[in-house]
Amino acid sequence: MKKLVVVILALSLPGGRCAPTDPDVGIQYHSGGLSIDISVGRHLNASSCKQLKEQYNTKDDGLYYLTSSSGTEYMTFCDMTTAGGGWTLVAGARENNMYGRCTVGDRWSSQQGNDINNPGGDGNWDNTNTFGTPEGATADDFKNPGYYDITAEDMSVWHVPNKALHPTWKSSSILRYHTDSKFFTQYGGNLYGLFKRYPVRYGIGQCNVNLGPSIPVKYDLGSPDTNKLFYGPNSRGEFQPGFITFRAINNERAAMAICSGVKPTGCNTEHYCIGGGGFWPEAGPRQCGDFASFDGEGYGTNLGWSASKEITEATVLLFYR
Amino acid sequence: MKKLVVVILALSLPGGRCAPTDPDVGIQYHSGGLSIDISVGRHLNASSCKQLKEQYNTKDDGLYYLTSSSGTEYMTFCDMTTAGGGWTLVAGARENNMYGRCTVGDRWSSQQGNDINNPGGDGNWDNTNTFGTPEGATADDFKNPGYYDITAEDMSVWHVPNKALHPTWKSSSILRYHTDSKFFTQYGGNLYGLFKRYPVRYGIGQCNVNLGPSIPVKYDLGSPDTNKLFYGPNSRGEFQPGFITFRAINNERAAMAICSGVKPTGCNTEHYCIGGGGFWPEAGPRQCGDFASFDGEGYGTNLGWSASKEITEATVLLFYR
Amino acid sequence: MKKLVVVILALSLPGGRCAPTDPDVGIQYHSGGLSIDISVGRHLNASSCKQLKEQYNTKDDGLYYLTSSSGTEYMTFCDMTTAGGGWTLVAGARENNMYGRCTVGDRWSSQQGNDINNPGGDGNWDNTNTFGTPEGATADDFKNPGYYDITAEDMSVWHVPNKALHPTWKSSSILRYHTDSKFFTQYGGNLYGLFKRYPVRYGIGQCNVNLGPSIPVKYDLGSPDTNKLFYGPNSRGEFQPGFITFRAINNERAAMAICSGVKPTGCNTEHYCIGGGGFWPEAGPRQCGDFASFDGEGYGTNLGWSASKEITEATVLLFYR
């Protein structure tokens, strides 16, 4: 056995990127043997953007491949700059068709019509089903393995205009905020764990009594005041901005998954909370869908109980750290 | 050209696993040149779990990447322990909503409603369409390239409670069995080939006359007696447990794909067989869907023609070897 | 630092293929260091089949992995032989169920029913959503990242019988043709860019006045005359074969995406153009769907305004170069 020092200066690999390698790490000898650490393109050995940042010192926002604890490789978007960076995009919820009431594309509520026999709807808030791609996240619903795989402490939310391309997400977003209380440590480590504890299901409880946790947020774009104005005047009268709230229940016992940006104090949560189970009793099927009844008094009017066109036509991107 | 012996002691690769390599295999010289066999993480060079077991001596149940004959890389679950192991998960069929009659999610029958004009339904039993992920296989329908790519001899079936996570599939399953007669060698090598010969299509034939093959099974969990009890007393009167049967046809000429665990002797197969074409004439649209009419006399009652709640809410995982 | 010449003769990698490497490229020394160019299986470093051909001299039609500009790795089919080769399959459109009017599977028009409130339908002609697989492209709709990522000059179209397997696509196709005028350079570089300029949307304009570009094609299989005969005699009276036309508008202001093979001179484009928005006013919902009203006067009759069975049951595969 002959000792040899070789140095990988540059490794041109699938994906077309040249991954500069540390000579000391690139190839090392151990007792006459050879150990190679190869990172293929953006396929770095990390299970979250946080790990990517900490371990590989990755600094740019953008798309990266992660590897889940089960070995699943998937690409997602990393926000490496907000409040220290290390945020992993795990899901995106959008309203593909406000006039389609629990029809195809309503994966965050139900694609089965408004149906009391299907109270949990599609069930994607607390299962391991995945769909969509990061590049298509503002064009169709999106959920990746990070949603259930990453053990997180905090959440960040971006409201990005539908069809925006990922390089412009940050600059085109209309609202961005994040928690910094490490609340997930008390609620199952991620949304999968949280919603196992707070099922999103028609009839699971009643308004006020069974509301899930409300976590204060810090704004990275916008403020409680600008947040408030995206929803109609009636809605503003029954929520407090500056929070992200989980599992809201309305007057008729329909369940919604996330009130993103606000904490309900009233029971008409269908006008400002998103996602949900498979049944909304009031005026059925009119409130059934991913963005429930954002169009309560007309599409995008921002009058009465109606949300603004801006928030109605924005994808809600959910990040973990 | 200088000869050199180098030994790769450990190779840390994307996926975060340390793949111990055989020094003699790791790097070899051939006539002054160098040949390297690199296995990246779980991306081993195998097209089935059987090959993974035989070639790489892989012994643990779990998720692995396979590569199909066309070069498609996909992850699936390998059962490496049952009856010698080497079983590849190729599909999962579940009823996402018993009350949705041939609606979204009924990929193993039809997502187009009960329709005589669409007799073959979605056609996934004999096409090369794929969907879902192994980690989400109990949360949504699943089919991978192995379904049509792997040339198999036998089949194994697990009935696993919906939403169970893959590490608990085996322990939480309610019924498991497999064939050991190498029947696939006579029927096209896999389900794709078998269903090309026995199309799943309304009106293709009549009950009893055109029933597809019934293959005896050995039970790995349960027995013919426990299998029988998962279906209602009326159903028990017209099937024999201990088989897996392909392409059943009922009284009204509707076609079902698999009677998993039983061999029909009567013609009300909609109460204990799964999958199918796109049209069930009787009481339309009530029998149309992935689990047809398991709820014939009420959901999960296990009375009359109704199946038990346990079997109705279990995903049918299909393996090849 | 010791200089050493090593030669990788053969590299056996995931995917099971032995990638013969150029000794001079395989491993090279640069100033005492080592640079390795590894191409994993079919994961070559190319973002299009054209680049694959030019850079790696790839000559065979078949499935290859490409890497998009964002680093997304995806597999697709390359036509390496037609008119110099280098054609990348980016999409496939088929009619899954002529009797399902804008139902599940109508991703190239709308899966939401015929609805004036949803004029753009699913919107996939000008978004970054993707779906399906190349191996399943004749079994379900297909769109990959190349659709929006590749900057192309020309287009090629294959009409391939549904459910045909990719090794037989070319030989079983019923019609093949391509442009050679580099028209994409004037229209946004690809279909994504083109349809951003010519939105496919009910009510966007009127027949004749707002027709998008018609580009002459050369036939690789068939001719203007055989092309013509795939559509009914009434249709033949109002189009000119030998073109591919984008964004047609009919009498009732419904929009269709592509008239593949023809240039409309009349306004009943629903009988020979495919894809579209989410609303066809005439005889609603009868004209709504991926293949609109190919069955205008009966399914597959090739009489009156009806297209032939052959063209109705063929997938339209779209290639870029």
Automatic annotation (TrEMBL), chains A, B, C:
InterPro entries noted in UniProt: Fibrinogen-like_C (IPR036056), Fibrinogen_a/b/g_C_1 (IPR014716), Fibrinogen_a/b/g_C_dom (IPR002181)
Protein's UniProt keywords contain Mitochondrion: no
Any GO MF annotation of the entry: carbohydrate binding
Signal peptide (from-to): 1-18
PROSITE patterns linked: FIBRINOGEN_C_2
Fibrinogen C-terminal domain segment(s): 40-96
Keyword terms of this UniProt record: Calcium, Disulfide bond, Lectin, Metal-binding, Signal
PANTHER family: INTELECTIN, INTELECTIN-1A-RELATED
NCBIfam families in alphabetical order: GGGWT_bact (NF040941)
UniProt-recorded name of the protein: Fibrinogen C-terminal domain-containing protein
Species for this entry: Umbra pygmaea
